[in-house]
## 1
Amino acid sequence: AGIHDQKMMRGNGGELHQTAGDGTPVLTTAQGGPVADDQNSLRVGARGPLLVDDFHFREKIFHFDHERIPERVVHARGYGAHGFFETYESLAAYTRADIFQRAGEKTPAFVRFSTVAGNKGSFDLARDVRGFAVKLYTQEGNWDIVGNNIPVFFIQDAIRFPDMVHAVKQEPDRGFPQAQSAHDNFWDFISLTPESMHMIMWIMSDRAIPRSFRFMEGFGVHTFRLVNAKGETTFVKFHWKPKLGLQSVAWNEAVKINGADPDYHRRDLWNAIQAGNFPEWELCLQLFDQDFADGFDFDILDPTKIIPEEVLPAKPVGRLVLDRMPDNFFAETEQVAFMTQSVPPGIDFSNDPLLQGRNFSYLDTQLKRLGSPNFTHIPINAPKCPFHHFQQDGHMAMRNPVGRANYQPNSWGEGPRESPADGFPHFPAEEQGRKARLRPESFADHYSQARQFYISQTPPEQRHIAAALTFELSKVETPVIRERMVSHLMNIDETLANTVAAKLGFRSMPEPADAAVPTRQDLDPSPALSIVQR
Ligand code: HEM
């Protein structure tokens, strides 16, 4: 009787549903068995022990015990939304990518914004770079532009990434801090890494405490290639520009907001989209060729450099609109798997050593995090275009080859075949050189663009940078690290260096830093050594 009065009803599609008497569905086990009592375990007597034949309790607790998957090793805290990308005009002259062939074409998109350093439960308004990862479900497969809201990066070579991330996250002995850059390990690594100085200027600026995701730019960071149907290539940098413009909070606002509402950025995106205020970005391209690249005194393969838009304007080629929140945070925002190596024909890579390392890393991380090579079977990761392959089996396989043939070529006339004309062509760049671990001389200038960024800021923005550096370095307990940082600032802007040094109580200024990455010998921990030796 009552709510357990179970009946079978036919749904709209004629399917049978188990329903309780009032028309609501009956609670079932994962095997579909109807549940009579979900409140009390099976036991002997009112105060007796529980019984192992309570398969409903066993299954319910078993599933709960396995709810967590590893959080992302970086960018653990994120928030996503669905939308679409609309192409403004054909870019066939530059790329054969189907997404750019027809004006007005709309491509489904999913975007995940994130902080980098904090764990999944950290607060939104940390001083940090924000991830800006875009998955475009094109007719030729998924294209992931896995970018950030800052156009440059800390390091020039992916081999340094594990060290950089170890240094930025919580210190291994004490387990803090998180989502907060002010600590000795972070500033130790940075002070020993002159190539990070340009990024540090951006991180200390208001860009690192955005008012909301809707007021942020996004950048592909690296130089990529476009390749057209004739096989001609153009270098490209990808930029997302918010229709609402750029806005940040002040540091004291960020600190208060983090205490009062750690989900501030999530709430903002949710509220905006639910209210129909769909945030929008324009995709803008900086397009250039090898001759143009050769005209710079920096290397366009160096991810710590930008190409100034005053020199090369960014051409708007389409718009990204976010208009729908996920139905389920875990299924979509958590399980989405971005990978820099997911590119359609017509988009290709440059020899940026950070990009090439990333292309290797993301597949590994998705296997670790999602647990099966079949992570592309999860709906948020599956392509939305037709796809056919012979990959089979493995944990949680939702799709296997149909029919007899699971290989090609075969004599049965079954299954897909490769297509030289349509398939991804890999741009046939000519490469030669000696095999060695080295960094080109063209990657050596670490200060010019840091200085240009600082100078480009308005006086209040410059004061914010000085205040941020002072606050951060005042938390650093090891004097030599502070001195090393001030010695780098002297190469960026002397007034900035003097201001920070004065606020930190320096009695005299150190020598300007050497740009070279310090050697073991430089790091001799003898007490006499107060700054990196030159
Ligand atoms: C995750 C951007 C450098 C490895 C991410 C995410 C973004 C991102 C946006 C979060 C994706 C999401 O929302 O799910 C960048 C940018 C970089 C950079 C812009 C430099 C320009 C690197 C490098 C490596 C790396 C050099 C390794 C060699 C990872 C890993 C994850 C990640 C392992 C976690 C992915 C996951 O578990 O889903 N990165 N990253 N990243 N990145 Fe990077």
## 2
Amino acid sequence: KVKIGVLAMQGAFVDHEKALQMLDCETMQIRTVEQLNQVQGLIIPGGESTTIGKLMDQFGLIDAIQERSSQGMPIWGTCAGMILLAKEIEASDQLRLGLMDIKVRRNAFGRQVDSFEVPLDMKEIGDEPFPAVFIRAPYISEKNDQVKVLATHEEKTVAVRQGHLLAAAFHPELTDDSRMHQYFLDMVQRSL
Ligand code: GLN
């Protein structure tokens, strides 16, 4: 059985575990390099990206995750997790993994729309729109041609894939539609 780690520094990691447990998959909260080395895939949850980045650094997880990524381990970042996967973060020098060829803008949808839910077209996971919950969400302002766009909202790129790396600006763990978790689980299973 596949075991997927959920980075448990801060933020929405418990909901990701619950979503994965609905599928045929074991989960593990990741706080140490030893724990990281026991999983075949990793989710980096939403939360506060500067806080998560600092804690990852303190626990030696930035180097360790970069290393696992270079060996092809699938990683999925949601919201703050997407920010941490980006090579470039607009107007910020905060700590990050810098694994994906994307530039992100934090809190990008403006104060009036701090949080909202929209049906999102994402053909890669099926014909039915995906209920996407955005909370102080970032979006992707630039990318290179290695990066495939999976979904857009108001012409902003909000979900992408680059090989073994997946990123979403929203919170799929907060709705009971499990298709994105299933999609990531398939990525992990195919990587073994
Ligand atoms: N705005 C947060 C950040 O920049 C991300 C918000 C979220 O993960 N829901 O870290």
## 3
Amino acid sequence: DNFTAKSLGDKKEKTLAMIKPDAVDKMGLILDMINQKGLLVTKAKMVLLSRAEAAQFYIEHQSKPFFNGLLDYVTAGPVVAMELMGSNAIQAWRDLIGPTNPSDARSQNAQSLRAKYGTDNTRNAAHGSDSKESAMREAEFFFPSTGPARANTAQFTNCTCCV
Ligand code: GDP
Ligand code: MG
């Protein structure tokens, strides 16, 4: 197993993945893709975001013309948020999901997640953090490290970085 505590080494980078509502029914296939890529799911939850929560998550885009449509989309049903861990996890997950626009994704690599499950520029199946800073902020958004919920949160036991 590449992910035992002793062998983690440089594989400890974390990213925040979010499977958007219309791709949640593909979670089994998506987990297979994550597994094949050598990424580990260290935290996961399914949650129905309120509009205010979605606006907070996407705060960097609040002045964009697509902001309201984006909030409509990601609040249309439950999302699955995952913390993924592995070597260069941020870039590895971005590579796996593909470009923002699914039609670009399809012309680049038909096997990416957005190529396979994305519909249009808004409904593009998945989110991935774009930097270490956003990965930290976004993981904290879905999996807060403080507060009463912590006591009931299962921790991945082989992971040295979330104890
Ligand atoms: P990402 O990092 O690849 O997800 O892309 P961005 O951070 O730029 O945008 C966040 C999300 O807003 C995207 O995943 C899309 O769902 C949506 N989005 C981004 N750009 C556009 C756009 O030009 N038009 C529309 N309709 N939606 C967009
Ligand atoms: Mg982004």
## 4
Amino acid sequence: MIVSVIGVGYLGAVHAAAMAELGHDVIGLDVDSGRVAAMQAGRAPFHEPGFEEILRRGLAAGRLRFTTDYAEIAHADVHFLGLGTPQRADGFGADLRYLEAAVASLAAVLPARGGAPTLVVGKSTVPAGTARRLRAQLTAVPGADLMWNPEFLREGFAVQDTLAPDRLVYGVAAPDTPAADAQVALLDAVYAQLIAAEVPRLVMGFETAELVKVSANAFLATKISFINAIAELCEATGGDVTDVARAIGMDDRIGGKFLRAGIGFGGGCLPKDIRAFIASAEDLGVGEALGFLREVDAVNQRRRVRVVEIARELLGDLAGRRITVLGAAFKPDSDDVRDSPALEVVSRLMSAGAHVTVTDPEALDNAAKRVPGLVGEPHTEQALAGAELVLLLTEWREYRGLDPVRVRNLVAAPRMIDGRNVLDPGVWRDAGWEIRSLGRGA
Ligand code: UGA
């Protein structure tokens, strides 16, 4: 089967390489010629474990290539849409321009197939109603139709999540019709190996499929903000949020995952997706239904401010103080700094006049582009030298495993704020550190 993937950002690039891994002939398309050239040369434009390996394998096998030219993908049987839907500059809603432009460009070249069946499959996270509107852009193209197949991959686990997902969700214009059945069969053929491995596959209407994706992300964000709200209570009472999370998580109905309290969620998905979900509910006249998501967002923002308050509690005035921040990425095993809680804390510390040194194994280049004047130091020990306060803000394995005795000899004063609750406070205190965590006592 010949497959195209339009938009080879994070989602699209991984999807393209994964489809080649499944044995398809894949052409990835992007308007960014630099990105296309890098991937054609086998270079991953972002850090993602295992991605470069499958990218190179696909290229070497001749099953994967990249282009900027829509004419080169016109002959594909299936076109996946992997374009970004960022937060709109003028508000909370999702910016769908890239998707709309891609479908328009595709519609212009598809008549070259002479009416042969062609399936366009949306993967981006979109407000309910988008798939139906995009499908309307294709009505004039004989043989073409659209499905919605949201993607649930996590950064850091993207390859594994694409090739062995928890479930496949297929959205169709009209379930249980012959047209839908034919489309489902075609997409099943694309994912034949996953279906054979008994990955559950759910077929539903467009709007439901769109809602599944945003609901999943909103639920995850809510879980994180719930435990971070409890962290505020723990700080006010002397309780320990990590024990609360462990204990409530042992109830199967609650589940222990995504209950890690700390400086909160960031990245290119959860923050913008809950805001787009709120905007979409308001557009639909049911804004009250998602009013609680504003609170989820507010709790999340407050944690970033709280870390800086704790820094002030430890140091007093921050002006001129030497602070080292461990971690810039929005989460470990990623070089993504979009809406990174760590970087927002860095910016706030810098605005307060602190001399901040940031270290991160992968994300320093991206961080420097985001935060003007950022001082980055790739080597952890050099970054720690002379610090009056250390903040652990992204829980890379190498920071979780730091030896408090060794590090104490590098810093000017042994003070630590564990923004991710990954260090054992007792061990650090025994090694002579003053350590503060989020949601663990006053
Ligand atoms: C998220 C979802 O988890 C994926 O299922 C989804 O496909 C993806 O968005 C998307 O829509 O594309 P991702 O953004 O890669 O994936 O990151 P997560 O693992 O969800 O983490 C998001 C943020 O929450 C990170 O900043 C992380 O540090 C934070 N987090 C996570 C916590 O603060 N506590 C937790 O317990 C878990």
